[in-house]
Design brief:
5 helices; elongated; mainly alpha; disordered N terminus; Multidrug-efflux Transporter Regulator, Chain: A, Domain 2
Length: 136
């Protein structure tokens, strides 16, 4: 039985392989999305048994957790696919992958600044309403 430790849900699979339902449960990604990610090449080289059923390893889990984090940070799926393609080519693409992540980090930092401004403005409005309410 797999065990989950740390906030990154690092998973160790006893026996080395898990089926798509367990993979879906452990990663909190639907089986449909997992199949789609394989179809478009975000997930590559997924093992299959004689019946064609997919089986995943702890390395697949580590990778999909990274993909999930990139999605949560707002990276477009096309860029994630590009990153996956570059990753498959090996260390010779390290500079390109680093640049892809750096470019996204800049966008993320800009978004954080904008979100901080939004938060400041909404807090100002809350204070305004607190003052209105306290006057009455």
């Amino acid at each position: 039985m797999p065990t989950i430790t740390s906030s990154f849900q690092r998973i160790t699979c006893l026996g080395g392989l898990i089926n798509i339902q367990r993979f879906s449960t452990l990663t909190n990604i639907s089986a449909h999305t997992i199949r789609y990610y394989e179809k478009i090449g975000v997930l590559k080289h997924i093992a299959r048994n004689a019946n064609g059923h997919r089986f995943f390893t702890s390395k697949d889990i580590d990778w999909i957790q990274f993909v999930k984090r990139l999605k949560e940070m707002g990276m477009p799926l096309d860029n994630i696919k590009l990153y996956a393609d570059l990753r498959e080519q090996g260390e010779s693409t390290a500079e390109q992958r680093k640049q892809l992540l750096q470019d996204h980090a800049v966008l993320l930092e800009e978004k954080i600044v904008l979100e901080a401004l939004h938060l400041k403005k909404i807090k100002e409005k809350i204070i305004y309403y607190e003052n209105v309410i306290n006057k009455n």
